[in-house]
Amino acid sequence: MRDLVKEFIKNEGMVLPSSFVVEIYSQILRFAGGFAGLIQAGSRKAGESAARVFKEKYKSTISIEEIPQLLTIFFQEAGFGDLKVELDGDKLRVEVIDSPLLRVRGKVESALKPLQGAIEGFLSEMLNKKVSAKVRDKVIEVKI
């Protein structure tokens, strides 16, 4: 699975310095304030799009049991950080161990809104059903 994700990121991704990403999100959050949900919505669409391209290009389907591994690999290879992902029935617990987003100024929950949205969109598309998530400190809880 890692090789597929690496190939996808190489062919479809865009490499940006983490300091650039941190600064952009810091500025957006500074001006967005209570509208951080808009960032989450945009990230959700981006996650859906990435999953759609991944599925089409690699004819890939995943089972719920493969989600922890897939999310971990995707976010590592994309440079968005290290995650610890655990599946517990119909819930997914995503602990953000390290991420450039954690260096964004402001509340951790707001800084992780882009990651929350991307995970919601990515999984919704990969599983062909709407999923929702909540952020508590450095943990994103996903109902799948």
Report on the structure:
This protein has 144 residues and is α+β, with helices and mostly antiparallel strands. It has a 4-stranded antiparallel β-sheet with strand order 1-2-4-3, covered by helices on one side. The protein has helices at 2-12, 18-32, 36-58, 67-77, 108-111, 113-127, and strands at 82-88, 91-98, 132-136, 139-143. The two termini are 21 Å apart. Helix 1 (2-12) packs across helix 4 and helix 3 runs parallel beside helix 6 (113-127). It contains 6 helices and 4 strands, in the order ααααββααββ. A hairpin with a 2-residue loop joins strand 1 (82-88) and strand 2.
Key terms:
four-stranded antiparallel β-sheet, 17% strand, alpha+beta, 55% helix, 6 helices, 144 residues
Short description:
The protein has 144 residues and is α+β, with helices and mostly antiparallel strands. The protein has helices at 2-12, 18-32, 36-58, 67-77, 108-111, 113-127, and strands spanning 82-88, 91-98, 132-136, 139-143. The two termini are 21 Å apart.
Largest sheet: 4 strands, antiparallel
Percent of residues in helices? 40-55%
- Radius of gyration equals 14 Å
Which strands sit side by side, in order, in the main sheet?
Answer: 1-2-4-3
Order of helices and strands: HHHHEEHHEE
- Low-pLDDT stretches are none
Apparent shape: globular
Q: What oligomeric state do these chains adopt?
A: single chain
Q: Give the beta-strand count.
A: 4
Give the distance, in angstroms, between the N- and C-terminal Cα atoms: 21 Å
Give the amount of beta strand, in percent.
15-25%
Average pLDDT value? 89
Q: What is the helix tally?
A: 6
Structural class per helix/strand content? alpha+beta
